[in-house]
Every structure is written in structure tokens, then in C-alpha cells.
């Protein structure tokens, strides 16, 4: 995985931390109302719903922090999972709330997902299933070496086999 993928994940993380602050703290204040285009009355009536939504965005941010701090297969799987969740939320928000969400939330997550799936050295390698009995904690099982047969050994006399 490339450094660029982690930079994009960091960007998605910062976006979600900003969304948390907007929805949980600034929802009824002029800055929050300006960002979401709401009236003071609407903001006051929906502040509990906005705070709840902000909490969910906080969980996405927490997951992305975990994904960036983890290592190995756990980090890779967490990055794919949480970026996938952000992408799904962005697509749903883009379809139900407004197209701006597609660009603010879904597009960066899609870029991050695609870069997570691209090897760090830039060369594409076809996916290949690991050999049976192998994995991060199990060494490959090796077959016992067979002794080399000498030419002609084990053949019937006269070349008949």
C-alpha cells in the first residue's frame, strides 16, 4: 500500500472529524447553519438528530484512526472496511440529501479504496490464493524431498518396463 493511500485516508479522517464538530457542536450556530443551509428554527428542532449523526461520523473517524495506527493484515482490512463504510454513507447521502456529499464524502473514500488496492511499487499483480497450509502465522508445508533416481535404475532388464 502506498503512502499516497494513507494520505488520502488521513484526508477522509480529517473530513469526518470536521463533520463531527459541525453536527455535534456547531449545528445550531451560524457556522453550522451556513454549511448545511438551515434556518435557526430547523437547526434547533433537529439538533438531537444532527448530534446522533455526528456520533456515527465519529465512529467512522475512530475506525480510520485505528486503521492508520494498526499494522499488517489488520490495518489493510480495517482501511478497506471503514473506507467502504464512508463510501456507502456518501453514496446514500448523495442520493437522499444532496450531490455535494458525493464530492465531499464518497469521492475521497473511493480514491482511498482504489489506492489501497494498488501495490506500493505501482506494478499490478494478479490476485492469487495462498497455498494450502500457509498464512501469516503458519510456514509453508514442504513435501519431503524425493531421492533422485539414477538413469536406468528401476527398469527391467532389456529396456522393458
From TrEMBL:
Residues 128-138 have a biased composition (Low complexity). Pfam families: DUF1304. Residues 127-161 are annotated as: Disordered. This is Membrane protein. The keyword Transmembrane helix applies. The chain crosses the membrane at residues 6-28, 49-69, 75-95. Keywords: Membrane, Transmembrane, Transmembrane helix. It comes from the Bacteria.
Amino acid at each position: 500500500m502506498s503512502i499516497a493511500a494513507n494520505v488520502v485516508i488521513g484526508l477522509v479522517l480529517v473530513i469526518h472529524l470536521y463533520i463531527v464538530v459541525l453536527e455535534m457542536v456547531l449545528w445550531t450556530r451560524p457556522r453550522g447553519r451556513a454549511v448545511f443551509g438551515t434556518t435557526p428554527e430547523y437547526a434547533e428542532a433537529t439538533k438531537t438528530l444532527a448530534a446522533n449523526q455526528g456520533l456515527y461520523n465519529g465512529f467512522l473517524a475512530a475506525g480510520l484512526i485505528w486503521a492508520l495506527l494498526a499494522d499488517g493484515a489488520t490495518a489493510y482490512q480495517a482501511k478497506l472496511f471503514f473506507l467502504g463504510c464512508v463510501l456507502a454513507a456518501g453514496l446514500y447521502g448523495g442520493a437522499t440529501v444532496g450531490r455535494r456529499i458525493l464530492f465531499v464524502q464518497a469521492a475521497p473514500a473511493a480514491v482511498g479504496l482504489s489506492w489501497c488496492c494498488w501495490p506500493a511499487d505501482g506494478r499490478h499483480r494478479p490476485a492469487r490464493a495462498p497455498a494450502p497450509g500457509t498464512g501469516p502465522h503458519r510456514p509453508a508445508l514442504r513435501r519431503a524431498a524425493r531421492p533422485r533416481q539414477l538413469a536406468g535404475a528401476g527398469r527391467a532388464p532389456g529396456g522393458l518396463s
